[in-house]
């Protein structure tokens, strides 16, 4: 626990508080002309960008496969859309709708919003699988004939499609 005390002693807290104050002042100046009905969306997008930026630094220290999986989960949780409950049906993040449904003890709504997040995760993994298969086929073809470039590779497929 001594290393935590040493870390806290060495932190430039005055500099950190000045930076945070500058960020808050910049953010308040940025959003002062935004109408009240659009402010929640802008805060959500700004907060999501901050989370993605911070997650970038976390994912850099993770092994490559875990970093990709964590990016997929963060992306799906932050950016999966859902429909809000109530009189005005607006698009909201599914994570917010899931938490709201849990707090309101709406089991059906929580499961449906959670399923939308899980389906986005599944679709991203499926697209990654397809991309990896295509990349493997391309790389294996280049290993067999390293003198070819990508245009020769694509011309071979176009020629085969025309012949068929």
Number of alpha- plus pi-helical segments? 7
Measure the end-to-end span: 71 Å
Residue windows where pLDDT falls under 50 for at least 5 positions: none
Order of helices and strands: HHHHEEHHH
Strand content: under 5%
Give Rg in angstroms.
24 Å
- Sheet of most strands: 2 strands, antiparallel
Q: Mean of residue pLDDT? A: 80
Structural class: mainly alpha
Percentage of helical residues? over 70%
Question: Count the strands?
Answer: 2
Order of neighbouring strands in the sheet with most strands: 1-2
Assign an overall shape: extended
Give a structural overview.
With 164 residues, the protein is mainly α. The chain has a domain at 1-79. The protein has seven helices and two strands, in the order ααααββααα. The chain has helices spanning 2-10, 13-31, 36-59, 64-79, 94-103, 107-144, 150-163; strands at residues 81-83, 91-93. The protein has a two-stranded antiparallel ribbon with strand order 1-2. Strand 1 (81-83) and strand 2 form a beta hairpin. Helix 3 (36-59) runs antiparallel to helix 4 (64-79) and helix 5 packs antiparallel against helix 6 (107-144). The longest helix is centred in the last third of the chain and has 38 residues, at 107-144. The chain is extended, with a radius of gyration of 24 Å. The model has no long low-confidence stretch (mean pLDDT 80).
Q: What attributes characterize this protein structure?
A:
164 residues, mainly alpha, two-stranded antiparallel ribbon
